[in-house]
């Protein structure tokens, strides 16, 4: 009896030791790993930032970690990130396929889809459609200006008062995507928006938290019924309803929005074995909504936080806006070419906001090399965008909010190569064009009409962001005043 027990114990220990992840030959260095857990022990699950800092200090710009049994490589600095995402784009543009989020999205859409034909076709289609080929010239600007009117209404109701801008910006970003995707906008208490907000909140809490880490580390729990997929399925149902309504009211060849464009494309392709399908469209719409809402609204929140606490920068923006837009009733995206300071400010806001600090995880598509290390196929690759956005030697003022980072000695706008808030290479953010248009039009329009003031009783501003897949500033309040223009006719 005792002998059997000993034998069993020996077997189990042997198996556990065998399960201890080992670094392949010439793999980037990293901390000692434990059986089963990998390096989970080394990371605080709530906020691993401090731990990452230590790892980078001990092991250098390219280091490795084990997420449970899975090897991952963290890449820091412009040189390493450019080598991986641009020079060796084909080797580094995959996505991990066995994570929590893959199961939630059923491997459809674009964000989490692996490097291959379905991803490529869908990505190309969205880029074409968003670049106005599908939606008509200026259509994107119209949709954004339409939504800005609602922001202005909210602000006008709050003149002289203190306002919390979180919901307002979140709703605006969400509605702009909804306008592009479905041709409609939603009031904040609408069922659709409420369900989406709930779903995003639940899923991102889970995706950041210990649950997803465990899920990603231990495939055996994948079949347990998990509460979070439920929130996603509810939203999916609402999108299915929207697509069905579109099918009833659409006129083929005259698309009103992204969904109509996709349905036209489906007609064109027929059943030629292409990757386009209605199920794809459902997940794709959700993908674009998720990817485009928190990112944009968190960047706007950061922008107004820094503009309020740097009134001299806000004033300089306003002077440029008034000078360039004199006689125009509204700003167009093309006006940016005459507004180097405003361009510098929107870019500096994105640099400081550092909205997606670790990008979206990549994955190697074949055995490859990086900075002299060997990295096998299937390794998770984590591009540390923070490390580039504040890299010393790349910026005039890497650690402070200063639009001079984007201005040359002549006051002209310049974009350093380390500006990578949208990442780089073939996987680079697909919504970059839309996001930049939103940030520019919203900031210019609001700064032209209003003055934003840090409330006297709000104390010292705290710039430390709240950690997450997308970072956001701590909740804050703003005081809004109306700007009286000398050149407006007083009625
Ligand atoms: C300020 C706003 C935004 C920021 C900072 C941002 C940032 C990013 C980053 C860092 C990635 C990962 C790229 C990579 O894997 O290397 C990404 C991917 C993506 N973003 Fe954005 N994004 C923003 C807005 C948007 C908007 C408005 C949309 C929607 C139209 C969008 C759609 C996407 C999609 C679909 C992907 C996945 C691309 C792919 O896997 O091929 N993003 N974004
Ligand atoms: C990681 O955790 C292991 C086990 O607790 C420990 O031996 C090692 O020193 C830690 N390494 C770092 C860099 O924290
Ligand atoms: C990313 O880079 C920043 C800035 O250099 C550093 O503080 C952070 O710890 C890095 N994160 C990771 C995961 O290495």
Automatic annotation (TrEMBL):
Biological process annotations from GO: organic acid metabolic process; xenobiotic metabolic process
Broad class of where this protein is predominantly found: membrane
Keyword ATP-binding: no
Annotated heme binding sites: 429
Keywords for the protein's UniProt record, in alphabetical order: Heme, Iron, Membrane, Metal-binding, Monooxygenase, Oxidoreductase, Signal
Cofactor: heme
GO function terms (MF aspect): heme binding; iron ion binding; oxidoreductase activity, acting on paired donors, with incorporation or reduction of molecular oxygen, reduced flavin or flavoprotein as one donor, and incorporation of one atom of oxygen
Residues in the signal sequence: 1-19
Xref: InterPro entries: Cyt_P450, Cyt_P450_CS, Cyt_P450_E_grp-I, Cyt_P450_sf, Cytochrome_P450_fam2
Cell location: Membrane
Gene3D superfamilies named among the record's database cross-references: Cytochrome P450
GO annotations of cellular component type: cytoplasm; membrane
Family: Belongs to the cytochrome P450 family.
Name this protein carries in UniProt: Cytochrome P450, family 2, subfamily X, polypeptide 9
Source species of the chain: Anabas testudineus
């Amino acid at each position: 009896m005792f002998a059997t027990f000993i034998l069993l114990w020996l077997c189990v220990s042997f198996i556990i030791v065998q399960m201890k992840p080992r670094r392949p030959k010439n793999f980037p260095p990293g901390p000692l790993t434990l059986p089963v857990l990998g390096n989970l022990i080394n990371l605080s699950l709530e906020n691993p930032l401090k731990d990452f800092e230590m790892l980078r200090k001990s092991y250098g710009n390219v280091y490795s970690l084990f997420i449970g049994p899975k090897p991952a490589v963290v890449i820091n600095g412009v040189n390493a990130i450019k080598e991986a995402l641009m020079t060796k784009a084909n080797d580094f543009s995959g996505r991990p396929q066995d994570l929590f989020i893959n199961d939630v999205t059923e491997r459809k859409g674009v964000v989490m889809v692996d490097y291959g034909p379905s991803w490529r076709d869908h990505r190309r289609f969205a880029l074409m459609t968003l670049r106005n080929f599908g939606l008509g010239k200026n259509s994107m600007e119209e949709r954004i200006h339409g939504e800005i009117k609602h922001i202005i209404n909210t602000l006008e109701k709050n003149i002289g008062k203190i306002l919390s801008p979180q919901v307002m910006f979140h709703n605006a970003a969400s509605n702009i995507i909804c306008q592009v995707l479905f041709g409609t906008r939603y009031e904040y208490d609408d069922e659709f928006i409420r369900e989406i907000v709930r779903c995003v909140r639940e899923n991102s809490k889970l995706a950041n938290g210990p649950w997803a880490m465990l899920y990603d580390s231990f495939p055996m729990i994948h079949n347990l019924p998990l509460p979070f997929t439920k929130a996603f399925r509810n939203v999916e149902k609402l999108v299915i309803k929207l697509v069905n309504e579109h099918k009833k009211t659409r006129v083929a060849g005259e698309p009103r929005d992204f969904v109509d464009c996709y349905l036209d494309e489906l007609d064109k392709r027929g059943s030629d074995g292409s990757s386009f399908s209605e199920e794809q469209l459902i997940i794709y719409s959700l993908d674009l909504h998720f990817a485009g809402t928190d990112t944009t609204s968190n960047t706007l929140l950061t922008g107004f936080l820094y503009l309020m606490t740097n009134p001299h920068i806000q004033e300089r923006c306003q002077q440029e806006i008034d000078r360039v837009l004199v006689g125009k009733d509204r700003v167009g995206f093309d006006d940016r070419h005459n507004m180097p300071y405003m361009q510098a400010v929107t870019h500096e806001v994105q640099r400081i906001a550092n909205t997606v600090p670790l990008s979206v995880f990549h994955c190697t598509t074949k055995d490859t090399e990086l900075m002299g290390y060997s990295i096998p196929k299937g390794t998770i690759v984590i591009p540390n965008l923070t490390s580039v956005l504040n890299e010393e030697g790349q910026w005039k003022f890497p650690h402070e909010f200063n639009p001079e980072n984007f201005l040359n000695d002549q006051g002209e706008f310049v974009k350093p190569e380390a500006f990578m808030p949208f990442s780089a290479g073939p996987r680079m953010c697909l919504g970059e064009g839309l996001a930049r248009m939103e940030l520019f039009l919203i900031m210019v329009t609001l700064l032209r009409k209003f003055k934003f003031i840090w409330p006297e009783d709000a104390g010292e501003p705290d710039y430390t962001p709240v950690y997450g897949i997308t970072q956001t500033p701590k909740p804050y309040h703003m005081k809004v005043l109306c700007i009286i223009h000398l050149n407006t006719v007083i009625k």
